Amino acid sequence: MFKTEQGQVFKKYIPVLTIVGKSKSGKTTLLEKLIPELKHRGFRIATVKHHTHPGFEIDHPGKDTWRHAQAGSDYVILASPDKIAWIRRLDKELSLDEITETVSGVDLVLTEGYKSAGKTALEVVRKERGLDIICSPDQLLLIATDTRLEVDAPQFDLNDSSSIADFIEKWVNSLENKDF
Predict the structure, then answer these.
(1) pLDDT grade, residue 79 (50/70/90)?
(2) Is residue 22 included in any domain, yes or no?
(3) Domain CATH for 149
(4) Angle at which helices 27-40 and 161-175 pack, to 10 degrees?
(5) Is the CB of residue 135 less than 8 Å from the CB of residue 117?
(6) CA distance 6 to 118
(7) Would the pTM of this model clear 0.90, i.e. be above it?
(8) Strands 84-88 vs 75-79: parallel, antiparallel or unpaired
(9) N or C: which end of the chain has fewer CB within 10 A?
(10) H or E element that contains 45
């Protein structure tokens, strides 16, 4: 949050890049490589994983926070000196914008999934999973692939996380001078 000279409070724009691709194309593996690469360059990173099925569980049966939720708490927070976690019951799925609106203190949000959110996307394409692009052309920023595609978008070797991070860094820097 920042204040203008007039005292108006606003939140710094945080770019969102969603990693999309078919199942088993290597989205998570690429994220595992990109995160440390971007952190090494000084980026503070948030990640959001889209889980399409209701009812995931990150808490452990019998633990105090699990017991709080079982007793009916709608919002359980686990806080320690070095981490904090929120578990919140929802009546409806939140949009990616509603989720990222709560994020602060980072320079970039990377998501896995959310192919229908309309956000700028890095698409992962693996030859063995099929060569068709699943995100819309207006979303597509770049492609990480193990083959050459006949697509008008920058393409990088799926295993070249350094060059992909270079491209992402230039993209984020190009956004710094824009008004949102």
Answers:
(1) confident
(2) yes
(3) 3.40.50.300
(4) 60
(5) no
(6) 34
(7) no
(8) antiparallel
(9) N
(10) strand 45-49
